[in-house]
Amino acid sequence: MTNQDSAVLLRRRDAGVTEIVLNRPDKRNAFDDVIIQQLITAITETDTDSETKVVILRSEGKHFSAGADLGWMRRMADNSQQENLEDSRQLARLMECLNNLSKPVIGLVQGAAYGGAVGLAACCDIVIATEKASFCLSEVKLGLIPAVISPYVVRAIGERQARRFFISAEVFTATDAERFGLVHIVCADVESMNARCNEMLQQLALNGPEAMKAAKNLVFAVSHKPIDSTVIDDTAHRIADIRVGKEGQEGLSAFLNKRRANWIPESN
What we know:
50% helix, six-stranded mixed β-sheet, three-stranded mixed β-sheet, alpha/beta, globular, 15% strand
């Protein structure tokens, strides 16, 4: 779907599955303003692609991403406050686009995930990492802060852990990341990570695509909200609407008649 020499690859993996791949292994998949825009474009295209049911975000090479590219940081240091603001808004838009992508997003993390790469992981719905993966919110080492990724990282790991790691810039392990809530599954190596990803893809293929989209929106709708009459009424409307919808009707019919729902591939 994209040129193999591109810094960001967009390609079909299997029926219904699209990969967005960081493809700068020689630069430890560090990103700059150009790559950020390419990622936004890839995410936007994937979001509107009716054939895509699940998205995988991953990287080529030994590392997921070292965060910001050094050349990009040098340019930003010489830019005006307004230019830095515009640049930061693009990174913020990337995080927003990934977080709000309507399809399930599986993030695969190996090696280093530093700085903004932690934000990318926090914006994925399911994160699978290798045992040797390492994470670091390293911005304060440069006299900076993890500003635009902070809403997503704080929601992923909680305020208490964020206070420590935003300030300390300590490296933490995949096991720590799993304990904090940033990572869901830790695997021994890349091979087992890919195998676990395949298992997850098979699991997701059993589920209604529209239902998964609605379930993701449901989390956003109720998260950090008081359980009051507004939330209760909203959730009642959501389930009522989906029950009478085309996919809901098909799912209920398949269950009651003990047959496969029409969205499940024959291979499953």
